[in-house]
Each structure stands twice: as structure tokens, then as C-alpha cells.
Amino acid sequence: MAKADTLSRDTAMSAKPVAVQVVGREDLGNGGQRLTVEYQSTGWRRWLLRAPENLTRQFELDPLGLQVFEMCDGQKNVRHIIDRFAKHNNVNRHEAQRAVTTFLRTLMQKGVVQMMIHDT
Questions:
Q1: pTM score, two decimals?
Q2: Using the 8-state DSSP alphabet, how is residue 62 labeled?
Q3: 3-class secondary structure per residue, 4-72
Q4: Could you give the domains of the chain?
Q5: Do strands 22-27 and 16-19 pair parallel, antiparallel, or not at all (unpaired)?
Q6: Helices and strands (H and E) in the chain: how many
Q7: Which end of the chain is less packed: N or C, by CB atoms within 10 Å?
């Protein structure tokens, strides 16, 4: 079985994350927020679970997660988000890179963020 295609590091760092549309926000009191987002149920979920097409999900983000999420606007690339996160939180770039990329990967798996990758 062939190994799945992977992105080069440079391509991944140049990708621009785009957050799904937030339809509701609730402050949590600790600087974080509970976000309500819409998502489309997939064909098999719709068939198996008889789920409606448009559903909402809620996610709680702490202040650091919210900071990263707010930068997922389709304009800033991953490298820029890492640099701003490092500067704003007074952490070295390596720590920021690890935290931000891990968090973005989690958001992608949950369907809250998608990556725009530009061909060069």
C-alpha cells in the first residue's frame, strides 16, 4: 500500500487556515469562549443516523485556542500565525510552532478549520 501524500514543510507553513462560520459565541469568564458552528452531516451519517443536513456543534476554546482560532481568516498563513502567537505569548518560536500546528491539526480533524493550499 502506498504511503499517503504528505505536504512539504514549506507548503504546510504557507497554507492559510480558514475557520468555519461561527453562528454563536458565549464568553466563559476565563477569557475563552464557547463557539457554535454549523456543519454538514456526511452522506453516511445522514443515512445511518438519520441526521439532518445542517447541524450545529459547540466547541469551548481557552484564551490561547481562541487567539489562534481568530487568526484563521484565510489571509494569514500558518507561519504568520506561529510568529504572532510566539510574540504575543512570549514563547520561543519552536514552542509556538509545536502548539499552533498541533492545535490546528485538531481543529481540522473536528472540521472547524480547513486549509487553503496554493500551488506554486
A1: 0.81
A2: -
A3: CCCCCHHHHHHCEEEECCEEEEEECCCCCEEEEEEEECCHHHHHHHCCCCEEEEEEEECHHHHHHHHCC
A4: 9-113 (1.10.10)
A5: unpaired
A6: 5, 5
A7: N
pLDDT in tens, the chain (120 residues): 445 567 788 888 999 999 998 999 999 999 999 999 987 666 665 666 666 667 788 999 999 999 999 999 999 999 999 999 999 999 999 999 999 999 999 999 988 899 998 765
**Cell numbers at residue 66, please?**
481562541
Q: How far apart are CA 88 and CA 74, in angstroms?
A: 20
The residue type at 99: A
Whole-angstrom distance, CA of residue 33 vs CA of residue 45: 28
Place of cell 447541524: 55
Whether residue 77 contacts residue 15, with contact meaning beta carbons closer than 8 Å, is answered with yes
68, 105 contact by CB (below 8 A): no
C-alpha cell of 16? 492559510
Residue 14 CB-half CA count within 13 A:
9
